[in-house]
Design goal:
Layout lengths: L7 E9 L2 E7 L3 E3 L2 E3 L6 H13 L7 E9 L5 E4 L3 E2 L6 E2 L2 E9 L2 E5 L3 E2 L6 E2 L4 E5 L6 E10 L7 E6 L5 E9 H7 L8 H6 L11
Length: 208
């Protein structure tokens, strides 16, 4: 089981000329492959695994681009790191992204409902509002970035059925990098600076 209070993350850029491999997630919008480092796993192994699980691509030579300390309490969002109850109705809130509505006296007002990330800003589809202890919200985590050239004869588009919260279809396709800066989900757009700047955009792995 992942301890979200100590979690590390990865993101993978697969590039082809001026294009970037992305996928459409039916509930969360357009993204690049990314995920969580599992217990006992190093970040590079996690990147290889996540890319394979999400896209079916394997055997790529992943180049480390470094890492960033990623703030999680920005633009009205927060990440619940510890399973907790909403004070308003007693329902359980599982670890994950929530809308952060207010803070007061060590408490945070959140909306843990489902949201549509295909539009900007995301639109809440269902609402589950209530107060939780602000200490249940994570402040940041470390994300490691990797890049790889696309393998020869990579298809123009394909789909993968992923075991993602009950199962989701990930529809992969290529997108111009210039378009990615406005079409990726908002939380991933800052990652593109790491890709464009290479090691200048993140701390070097060997500089820890």
């Amino acid at each position: 089981m992942i301890d979200w209070t100590k979690a590390e993350k990865v993101a993978i850029f697969v590039v082809r000329a001026d294009e970037l491999l992305v996928f459409h997630h039916e509930r969360s919008g357009i993204q690049v492959p990314a995920g969580t480092v599992e217990p006992g796993e190093d970040p590079q192994s996690a990147a290889v695994r996540e890319l394979w699980e999400e896209s079916g691509l394997g055997g790529l030579d992943l180049e480390p681009l470094g890492h960033l300390e990623e703030r999680l309490d920005v633009d009205g969002w927060g990440f619940v790191g510890i399973r907790t109850r909403l004070d308003a109705d007693g329902e359980w809130v599982e670890p994950g992204w929530v809308r952060l509505l207010d803070r007061h006296g060590g408490q945070a007002l959140i909306d843990a409902g489902e949201f549509d990330a295909d539009i900007e800003p995301p639109r809440m589809l269902t609402s589950r509002r209530g107060w939780i202890g602000a200490g249940h919200l994570l402040g940041s985590w470390r994300r490691h970035f990797y890049a790889a050239p696309a393998p020869d004869r990579t298809p123009e588009a394909w789909s993968v059925w992923a075991d993602d919260g009950g199962g989701s279809e990930f529809r992969f396709f290529w997108m111009k990098r210039s378009d990615a800066s406005r079409r990726l989900v908002a939380l991933q757009r800052p990652w593109l600076r790491v890709l464009e700047k290479g090691t200048a955009g993140a701390s070097r792995e060997d500089g820890d």
